[in-house]
Design goal:
The complex is a heterotrimer of chains A (about 230), B (about 250) and C (about 300). With about 230 residues, chain A is mostly helical. The radius of gyration of chain A is 20 Å and the shape is globular. Chain A has helices spanning about 1-15, 20-55, 60-70, 75-85, 100-135, 140-150, 155-170, 170-180, 190-195, 200-234. Chain A has one domain: MetI-like (MetI-like fold, Orthogonal Bundle), CATH 1.10.3720.10. Chain A has 10 helices and no strands. Chain B has helices at about 55-60, 80, 100-110, 115-130, 145-155, 175-190, 200-205, 225-230, 235-240, and strands at about 15-25, 30-40, 45, 70-75, 75-80, 85-90, 160-165, 195-200, 210-215, 220-225. Chain B has 9 helices and 10 strands. With about 300 residues, chain C is α/β, with parallel strands linked by helices. Chain C is globular. The relative contact order of chain C is 0.22. The chains are: A mainly alpha (about 230), B alpha/beta (about 250), C alpha/beta (about 300). Chains A and C meet through helix 9 of A and helix 2, strand 2 and helix 8 of C.
Chain lengths: ~230, ~250, ~300
């Protein structure tokens, strides 16, 4: 119990004094994860819509694969990206290893299937509901997709937030491809891992509390949004 | 069946001529060899028991389903060409997750109506349907009757030549039914050809100018309303009007 | 404090005057390049978890950056992995503590030269009540054998690090092979020094650790320092610049500047001045202003 009270004190004092290191770490975590989610969403939303709307041979298999990839282990993704970005690997000359860019790439890969699978589900459900009406109106395929995306905006936003939650909480990928370099690639999760390994458990726990609060905040916001939307727009 | 006149009532899409229409799905035949023509712009009601194939008929005429056989022509146009000038309101209104105004605006946007004209058209549609006070309400929070009136208003915002209505009041209470029927009359009076399905005999009596009686996928009788209700010729129609169908 | 262990494996000076001046020349060039307004490029240093966890880098590197404008990015992993990083060219500099691996690295042409930088020592820690009775044992190998014969829980790094390799050498010197007992009393954590210490602390087990990690470790629990001072426990650190001929993209000039600074009087003084809990954790090893490279 002592560890917990020390942890809460550590967390509060860091937050209240706006500890420089803490701010730097939190900002980098947000930058990396938000960047990853943005990139993933830009690819995954149209991809999900495409799979939902376009019938093609093997579609069922693709849907199953997409859903399965939601469970992609971050540490495996980290390892693969590391092998790709290492100087000894194919993308070595780009010099991306141990940079925030590498972390963004790894997290984008982790998050992409989540957003794609959830948006596919959303679009498919809406399509079933709206298809006849949109055909009656004579919508072009592009107009249909736009209509479905907009009407599904709250569920899609929830999907994106789910992706963000996953990204900001993972440590396996970012620690391998980022190297946990101080002032460069150190984020909240990797700092917690480091402080734990130094035996500074109260500090690590304090950071953990901050991270959990952040993740909870994101999830709560997502829930409130989808609830409100459900009640207002049905 | 007597051959249709070449043109009638100066209505752009009439006459509707259907020959040998056939529709089956998964081995089941739903529409069997239906032929008819509709020349007048009065309100046509397709009447029949549940499962008669009324909804399918409507969708075949609107081009939402492809027939397995036979042909459909709207005046000089094919079904595909005519669809642009038609609109439909389904039994359960499919409203977008937007406001009432948003639903109407969506149609105008899809159809490429210029910006400046949109507001006026939306307001006119809302007035016609008696929904002006609900303009910024979320569409799906409206009552059943209001939702159906919105669906009809949405279908009519661009003054289509033909409006298809599929059992529009099946789930509504009497007051709501009256509201919807009144709107249908208004729309018809403005020049839109109404093609409506129902299993409600009283409703058919109230609204129909002519009646098509459908049973088990076959068109059994097609006559002006007064004639049909006074003295139906088809035995199934007789039993249906007496409340004895389906067996 | 720590008895200076005998170490006759290091040759302090490069043969030949001019070659000996080479590092200084390069530093001079680097400084000139910096002075001429060229942006000094950052360097990536592959080092060990033990050095990182001690806090040495947080203390030392800002001094180096202030003097040279070169940003240092430290990736801290086990020695084995650090060497792999340097082999692949993912790092510009190697700073580790396993002389045999370091010499192979240079011999294979992967590194330019090996400069001894500093040393400290390993210690054996374990539960305060010391069930194996090793407290105060003179020879580390003897202590390990007692632990093994008594089947007392021992946590190994198990991660191909410098500490791990030292531990295996000690078992060998003791003539005892713990590996058959893997998973029983011999527990390989496969992790860095800190995590291994956490594990030992939670299990009340014995483990081998470098003194710097031990002193700065914040979760000692019931663990106590039990064995120290054996000359076999000497723990030397060296710095190696990755060979730019093998990996043209490395920031060789800046990397050499780093190696030179570490072995310079300034750097060595800074290393010696680093204290945790009042204890000096690292002892300077380079002689002279620009040190010298080991070319064996």
């Amino acid at each position: 119990m002592n560890e917990f009270s020390s942890a809460i004190i550590a967390a509060l004092s860091m937050i209240l004094t706006l500890d420089e290191d803490l701010v730097e770490i939190v900002l980098l975590s947000l930058q990396v994860s938000l960047g990853a989610v943005t990139i993933a969403a830009v690819i995954a939303l149209p991809l999900g819509a495409l799979i939902a709307l376009q019938n093609f041979p093997g579609r069922r298999g693709v849907v199953i694969l997409l859903n399965a990839l939601m469970g992609l282990p971050p540490v495996v993704v980290g390892l693969v990206v590391y092998l790709l970005l290492s100087r000894a690997g194919p993308l070595g000359p780009m010099g991306l290893l141990f940079t925030p860019a590498a972390m963004v790439i790894a997290q984008s890969i982790i998050v992409l299937p989540i957003i794609a699978a959830l948006s596919r589900q959303t679009i498919a459900d809406l399509h079933e509901e709206y298809d006849e009406h949109l055909r009656s109106l004579g919508c072009t395929p592009l107009q249909s997709v736009a209509t479905l995306l907009w009407d599904g905006r709250f569920r899609l936003l929830t999907a994106i937030m789910a992706g963000f939650g996953r990204a900001i909480a993972e440590v396996g990928a970012v620690i391998i491809v980022g190297g946990n370099i101080q002032h460069a690639t150190r984020v909240m999760t990797t700092t917690i891992a480091l402080e734990t390994s130094k035996g500074n458990l109260a500090l690590a726990l304090g950071l953990g509390l901050i991270l959990v609060t952040l993740a909870l905040g994101v999830n709560a916001t997502a829930l409130i949004i989808s609830d409100t939307a459900q009640r207002r727009y049905g | 069946m007597p051959s249709p006149p070449d043109r009638s009532d100066d209505h752009p899409l009439l006459p509707l001529v259907v020959r040998g229409l056939h529709f089956g799905i998964n081995g089941r035949t739903i529409i069997k060899d239906v032929s008819f023509w509709i020349g007048s712009s009065g309100r046509t009601v397709i009447l029949g028991p549940n499962g008669a194939g009324k909804s399918v008929m409507l969708r075949l005429c609107h081009g939402l389903l492809k027939p397995s056989g036979g042909e459909i022509r709207w005046g000089d146009l094919s079904v595909g060409q005519a669809r642009e000038r038609q609109a439909m309101a389904a039994q359960h209104p499919v409203l977008l997750r937007r406001t009432v105004t948003g639903n109407l605006m969506h149609v105008l946007r899809v159809k490429g109506v210029p910006h400046e004209q949109r507001q006026d058209m939306v307001e006119a549609a809302l007035r016609q349907a008696g929904l002006e006070d609900l303009a910024s309400r979320a569409a799906r929070t409206l009552s059943g009757g209001q939702q159906q009136r919105l669906a009809i208003a949405r279908a009519c915002v661009l003054r289509p030549d033909v409006l298809f209505l599929d059992e529009p009041t099946a789930n509504l209470d009497p007051a709501a039914v009256r509201g919807v029927e009144e709107l249908v009359r208004v729309v018809a009076a403005a020049g839109t050809k109404i093609l409506m399905t129902t299993h409600d005999i009283a409703q058919a009596r109230r609204l129909a100018a002519d009646v098509m009686f459908l049973n088990d996928g076959r068109l059994l009788e097609h006559a002006p309303a007064a004639e049909f209700f006074a003295a139906p010729k088809d035995p199934a129609a007789v039993r249906f009007l007496a409340g004895e169908l389906p067996d | 404090m720590i008895a200076r262990p005998f170490d006759n494996s290091v040759n302090w000076r490069l043969p030949g005057g001019i070659l000996g001046r080479l590092p200084a020349l390069i530093v001079g060039l680097a400084v000139t390049a910096l002075a001429s307004g060229e942006e000094p490029r950052p360097i990536t240093v592959a080092s060990t978890t033990s050095t990182q966890n001690s806090g040495l880098f947080e203390y030392l590197l800002p001094k180096f950056t202030a003097e040279t404008g070169i940003d240092v990015r430290v990736v801290a992993v086990g020695t084995g992995q650090a060497i792999r990083l340097a082999t692949n060219g993912d790092a510009d500099v190697l700073l580790v503590h396993h002389p045999a691996s370091e010499r192979s690295f240079v011999a294979d042409g992967l590194g330019l030269a090996r400069y001894p930088v500093m040393h400290n020592d390993f210690v054996i820690v374990g539960p305060g009540d010391d069930p194996a009775g090793i407290r105060g044992t003179t020879y580390a190998a003897t202590a390990l054998r007692r632990i093994g014969e008594g089947e007392h829980v021992f946590v190994s790094r198990g991660d191909d690090s410098g500490t791990h390799k030292k531990e295996l050498e000690l078992w060998q010197a003791a003539g005892f092979d713990p590996r058959p007992a893997g998973g029983a009393w011999y527990r390989e954590s496969g992790s860095g020094m800190g995590t291994t210490l956490n594990t030992a602390s939670a299990m009340g087990a014995y483990t081998l650790t470098d003194r710097a990690s031990w002193v700065s470790f914040g979760n000692k629990g019931e663990l106590r320092l039990l064995v120290e001072g054996d000359s076999r426990l000497h723990n030397p650190y060296s710095v190696i610049v990755v060979n730019p001929e093998r990996h043209p993209h490395v920031h060789a000039v800046e990397a050499q500047a780093f190696a030179d600074w570490l072995t310079s009087a300034t750097g060595q003084r800074a290393i010696a001045a680093f204290r945790v809990d009042g204890q000096q954790l690292f002892f300077p090893d380079a002689a002279g202003a620009s040190g010298g490279a080991d070319t064996e």
